[in-house]
Every structure is written in C-alpha cells, then in structure tokens.
Amino acid sequence: MRVSVSCMIAAATWACVTALPASAEDQSALVQRGAYLVEGPLSCGNCHNTRDKDGKFIPGMEFAGGFHLVDPNFDVYMANITPDKETGIGTWSDEEIIRAIREGKDKEGKIIFPPMPVPAYNSMSDDDVKAVVAYLHTIKPVRNEVKESKWNIPQEAMPPAKGLPVPPKTDTVAYGGYIVNSLAECLVCHSSPDAHGIPDVAHKMGAGGFEITLAPGVNMRASNITSDKDTGIGNWSDADIKKAITDGLTPTGGHLSPPMPYSFYKNMTAEDLDAVVAYIRTVPPIKNQVERTDFQKKAFP
After folding, report:
1. How many C-beta neighbours within 10 Å does residue 225 have?
2. What is the C-alpha end-to-end distance of the chain, expressed in Å?
3. According to the model, what pLDDT value does residue 260 have?
C-alpha cells in the first residue's frame, strides 16, 4: 500500500501539533480552577496556613505550615506547601505533589496522613489535582521550617488514584457527591467514630460525634448532618444549610466550631453549593444526638 508524501506530511504535522504544550489560555484556566479549589472547597489554608497563638492566620504566611494538631493517634505539624525550595515543596515534581495529595506519600515515600484527608482526595479527578498543583506553583514561596510530625498508629498509603472524571454538573446529586466526598471531605469529619476512633463512613455516615482536638483543652465534636429531623438537619431549609456552610451559623444563631472552614466555603459558587445541598439531602437519617460546641468567643477564623 502506498502512502502519499502529502499524507505523511499531514500526519507528521498533526503529531507535532498534539505534542505542543498547552496554550497560555489553557494554563490560565487550569490555574484559575486550582485557585478556586484550594481557596474554596478544598480549603487547604485551613490547615496549611500559619497561625498565631490565638489561632488567627498570620498575614504573609499563607500555606507556610506549622499549625499543630495533637491527637491520641498523632502529633502533627502541618507542612509548608509553598514553593520554597528549602522548607516547602519547591523541589518537588508535579507527580510527587499529586502522589502526596491522593496517596499520602511525600517526596521520600514517607506516609504523611492522617489528619490530611487523603482517603477522600484519592478519588479526586486527574484534571482537578493537576489544577491544584498548577495553582500551588503560583503562590508566594515562604521560608518556614516546620517541626517533624509523629504518628502512634500503623500507617498505610492509599492505592494509586483512578483519576475518574468529575461527574457532569447536570447530574446535581452525583456532582454534589464529588464535592462533598472528594474535595470538601465533609463526611471525614461528620461521620461517627468506630471502635478504633476512625470516622465510620460506611455505617455511620454523617451521624456526627467525631471528636477533634484543636489545642490543649480545646475539643469539639462534629455535628450530625444526616436528614434525621430530631438530631440532624432534617428540618433545616436549603438556605439554612448554605448559611451553615458559608457563614458558620445554625438556624438559631449558634456558631459552628472550627475546623469547619466556612471562611473558605464562602468562596464556593452558588451552583456548587446547590449541588452540595442536593447531595447532603440524600444522606440517610441516623438518630444520634451530639452535644454542640459553640465557639462564638473563640479566636479561630
């Protein structure tokens, strides 16, 4: 079979075109999506921003790490995820950052979770995790040496991520489920603990009661966000749920506790918030009364 010279030239030209790097417009869109995810549903700064002794974010130290969380299972200092080459992730490849996010292994292969919700991020799409990395490359490098973290429990990395695409926005519940389960990790905190103190998403999804230690003597329990009308949010309107997510306020004016990152969720689009509410409405009711912790007078953002 003969192949014309014109066909070979066309094929070679197409191969070159498809091998070209993404356009500036494509890269800009990727960074913009990453900025939305990091500053919105992923709320990365909620843990990775540096805080003062009162729990307030320190201006100019965004993503520089050092926030200290103590738990019976670990004693963790949040990592510096700025592009600083000596104390941050400035020497990490894109693949190494992606592996850390979705599998929980650092540059040297050390397992770095919990409390980072890697099991949730394991189902983050390829496009979204690449967008996150693209945005992290653009933030200001900050030199901030963070203390070494320690774990008192056996650790195991997550399997390689499948990288499935984001569900279409037209399937509101499925799309909301992706935001809740793969980005905002809501059910990681809001599910009741099992016998080992681990959130039992399989059997007690959204039932609340998981205890988090924010600082010595500062403990909180995550609320029941199932559709149970007596102990959950079954009687809340859509507007009530959105107000809790974005403003940290209950229908009666109670203040939600950190680490609920409502200051970040406030950046979410109306479409994404609608999808989150639609999915949360599908969480089966579980009767579980959780004693509220009101942080109205606390300094945490």
Report:
1. 26
2. 71
3. 87
